[in-house]
Amino acid sequence: MKTFKIKTVQIIMITILICSAFINIGFAEEIIIKDLNLSSNYAKESIITLSEMDIINGDQNGNFKPYKPVTRSEIITMIVKVLEIDTNNLPDNATFKDVPKDHWAFKYVEAAYREGIIRGLSADEFGRDKECTREQMATMFINALGLTEKQELEHVNNLNDKEQVSDWAKDKVEITLATGLMSGVGANTFAPKGYAKREQVAVVMDKFIKNKEKILEQFRNKDSKKELQVYFNGDKIKFDIEPVIEDGVILVPISFFDKYLFASFHSSYFDKIGSVFMERPQSPPNNEYKNIMFKSDYNNAYKNIQGDPYENEAEYKDKLIVLEATPKKVNGTILVPFKQISEFFGMEYYMDKPKNIVYLRDDNAPTHPSLYFTLRKYVYFPYKGEMSSNMNLNVRGRGTGDYSNVRYNEYYKINEENFESTINLAIDGSDPNQESIEKTYGVILLNKILYVKDFDEGTWIEQEANGVIPEDSEAQGIVIDRNLYIDYKDYSITNEGEVEIDGLTTTKYVIKLDNDQIKSLMIEGNYGYLKPILEEVYDNNIKYIIEIYINDKHEIVKEVFAFNGVIEDETEKIDVNMLINVDFKNIGKEIEITAPNKSEIQVSH
């Protein structure tokens, strides 16, 4: 048998409206919007709120004119007032010829231009009296928040009139739709070139005042907040130390290259001189030798060198590479520019910036390197921990309907080459002359001595573990077949994504094997009695699937073995179905294995 390892706070926002009545002696100016009744019902509350805040007013007759389009000067004045932007630090000369210094909107337009909220319709024209379009309004409000990042246009792309949204406005419109700051005008339509009505502006402005902090929290520096994900040859990578992003450059620990490029890569850190040397004997695409040397906190690196270039940098100036970011030492680990070092050693690097995902490919590295690294670790480092295995085997004749069932359950405590196990075996079938079997055994392997207990007899039999311990001493304590690692490239393997097991997030891998691969992986010591059955299987529809679940520590936490095949004897075809579930617990834990009480041991001769 072979085995591998793996694996809102709902924030309730309670708005408390505290209504306080104050009796003031004196007189206040009465604020009246005379044509409020002409406004849409959805806009009335916002119009009253903004009027009380002195952000909007009626004309000389007290009319708000809710259906009238707002001008660019009017809307920018409201935004500057709401944000309380300084309108004193203004230029001596007007930026736009249509908003001179003596115009009432001059200070608001210049303050907004200084803060990056607006641009003109041209270099010297603002369009002060032109009606503001809906996409212009969206852009002004989002610019006022300082949100400039590119967005995934999920909402924009769902609009029926998405083609009418100007390219410069798409990211801003996306944010307004995603946050509910603005909505469509009906039938999944945004009407980006339509004019913004005064009542619409009032509603958006009211939402803006109440929700601007929440919008900022959600979208400011969204890319930097979004978790960086790295996929290498089909696997999502977990770094030993979290990458660092400086001025847009991703730095990763050099252990990434050592771990996932395996024997084809080597790095060394020379503490006395503070330099790092990285080399790869066969770098894609031409399998050429490459190396690079650099120092932490120093931008100059040198490629394909012999000796120490830092002793005399002038002699190595033709080997000089200026790194796009300075390597850093964090908690004793060197972090290096990810893209630059990857591409230097022949890897293909692509970053999807909106999603903050890096895709890395290397033709000389194995596919699904996380699985490969895990198998490699299990081959060379014996297992410690607990393991339980449950097997169900069913053999049934197609013609006669005769069947046999085998249930084989094992529980192991393993400490490298020593283990203790309890085995339950049950066999039954359709043959009335065949007595059903139920047996429980105990097995202890300790210091190359094997103890076997028949619970019916109640005694332990001691014997030399000849044939139990593999001749290759390095194989002691292994819970996977070495051939699965050695012949890794020959197998059909897929990564089927993340799966939760007992509350742990694991990655599921599926390996599909043909008949020859099955037999090469069948270990005599475990389920070896199945090998004669496999030798008889010749049906081309044989299916043998291994599922391996590993956690982010490169530990196998579960395996599933599923076998379906057909054998044929002289009289009929027989279906063979086997399912084995293997679970691992307390992985890496030291477990004491002790010999049975001497009084219970019989020595086998």
Descriptive notes:
- Helix 1 packs across helix 6 (198-219) and helix 2 runs parallel beside helix 4.
- A twelve-stranded mixed β-sheet has the order 20-21-22-23-24-14-15-16-17-18-19-25. It has a five-stranded antiparallel β-sheet with strand order 5-6-7-8-9, covered by helices on one side.
- It has 605 residues and is an alpha+beta fold.
- 20% of the residues lie in helices and 30% in strands.
- Among the domains are: 235-333, no CATH class; 375-585, outer membrane lipoprotein receptor (LolB), chain A, CATH 2.50.20.
- The longest helix is centred in the middle third of the chain and has 22 residues, at 198-219.
Mean pLDDT: 81
**Strand fraction:** 25-35%
Question: What is the rounded distance between the termini?
Answer: 29 Å
Q: What structural class results from the helix and strand content?
A: alpha+beta
CATH architecture of the domain at 375-585: Clam
Spans of at least 5 consecutive residues whose pLDDT stays below 50 are: 1-31, 469-478, 523-527
Total number of strands: 25
Q: According to CATH, what is the class of the domain at 375-585?
A: Mainly Beta
Shape: elongated
CATH topology of the domain at 375-585: outer membrane lipoprotein receptor (LolB), chain A
Summarize the main sheet.
Answer: 12 strands, mixed
Q: Indicate the radius of gyration in whole angstroms.
A: 36 Å
Count of helix runs: 13
Q: What percent of residues adopt helix (DSSP H or I)? A: 10-25%
What is shown here, in short?
With 605 residues, the chain is α+β, with helices and mostly antiparallel strands.
